[in-house]
Every structure is written in C-alpha cells, then in structure tokens.
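Handoff note, outgoing to incoming analyst
You'll be picking up this chain. Sequence as last confirmed:
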Amino acid sequence: MKIVIATKNQGKLREFKTLLADLPLTVTSLSDYPAIGEIAETGSSFADNAALKAEAVARQTGLLTLADDSGLEVDALGGRPGIYSARFAGPGAADQENNARLLAELRHVPLPERTARFRSVIALARPGEKTIFVEGICEGLIAERPAGSGGFGYDPLFFVPAVGQTFAEMPPAVKNKISHRARAMAAARVILQELLQAEK
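Most recent structure output, in case you need it:
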C-alpha cells in the first residue's frame, strides 16, 4: 500500500519513515508530488491543520495520506507558541530564531516553572472516507540554553527529566520511543495495520 506523508520537512519525514519502516508501506512525501502547492494551515487547532493537509493531499493524489500538526505548548506562556510553533519568530523564521524568541520570553522564568509539552495530532485521510485522528504528548521543561546537535525545531531546548537530556541530545532510537510524534504514531500504526489487513 502506498502512503503519502503530507510534509516537505525532511526531519519529520525521516522520523516517520523510521517509525513506519517495518510495515509493508511504500512511503512517499509532498516532495514526490510537486504539483501540490503549499497548503495553508488556517485551522485553529492542531487537529484542524492536520486534517486540512491530509484531506487536501488525499483528494489530489487519491492515496491514503498521513499528516501531522505538532507544536510546543509552554505553560508559562499560556500554551504558546502552540499551532504557531513553526513561525513563532515570524513567517519563514528559522529554528534558531524561534528558539531565541522562546528563550527571550522565558528569561525571567525559573527552570521549575518552565513546564511544557510537545503535542502531535495525526490525521489519516482517504478519499471518500472519514478522517481519523490520533494524538501523542511528551511532557518536559524548556532548558535555559540549547543542548545537543540532533533533531530539529525546538529539540535543543526541550528537556525530558525522565531521560535527563534534551530531544537534541538523545540518540534517535531513544527519541523515537518517547516523543510526542512516536506516541501519536504508535496509535496511528494500529489503524494502519487494520487498513493493511483489510486490503489482504
């Protein structure tokens, strides 16, 4: 079965390919369908945005499509940046700019109060079928300075006390067990396995 991962983000795509590696799926991404332009994320929640992407791509390709919308929710900032995580420092902001803005906004907040979570909502869409949603959450703290060179986005600042490392310091095998995306994918895998079984 062919599946489209509705992203051009190579970091996300790598994680998804790893998490789906043992399923009999041919994984493609938006890079394989250049005719599909930018899909505006105009929703008011992660689920809205995941659905907008998954349904648009499923409609245009005729294929099963997986889209995720994920972001960072910082308690001291009232849940921001949330759905605006990728553009926290402005449209087209680089990861370093978003991280710098986050550190600047939290500069007077002591570490124990820098509680945060990464949230991932995955939408699975097929043409003519009801879209299915699953969610994954990983709790942590925003570190006072970046650490680690792996991952992408806010990974150098997202510290997981249970592991004692930021996402960017963790080996991919560790991150891919505990991350918000891994937890959402664990739930999505159950659905994908059911769909694969039904195809037999």
